[in-house]
C-alpha cells in the first residue's frame, strides 16, 4: 500500500477527506446520540497525517534500510474514548446508544469489528514525539468546520435513522 494513501483506516487529520471523524463531528454538531457497537471497548489506533509526513521526510533524509515501517500512535484507545474525545472537541454533550444486536457495525459505525496494535518501534526512533490524539482531533475539527463539502461521506446517518428510529 502507498504510505500516503488516505483510504486506510486510522489515518487522521486535516486534508483527509474521510468519513470517520467527520461522521462523529456531524453527529456531535447536530446533538445526535451516538450509536456505538457493543460496549465501545473496540481498540482503535490512529496516526495524525502531519506526523506521517514527518516520518516520510525522515525516511528520505536518513535513507533508512527498512522499506516497511508501521506508523501509529503508540497507545490505542477504545471506540468509546475516541467518540468521547470527538464530542468533547466539538463541545457537544454525548449520549451513547449501545448496539448489541448482530448488525454489521460498518452500516452505522466507521470502523470494522477488528482490533490491531502496530509495533511502532522504528517509528519512535525516527519521530519520538507525535501529535496527541486530542490535539490532532482539535486540528481535524477546525479543518472539518471549514471544509464540510470536501468530506467523503458514507450513509451512516441515513441507516441509523431508518434502522434505529425510536
Automatic annotation (TrEMBL):
Domain of life: Bacteria
Protein known as: dTDP-D-glucose 4,6-dehydratase
Taxonomic source organism: Treponema ruminis
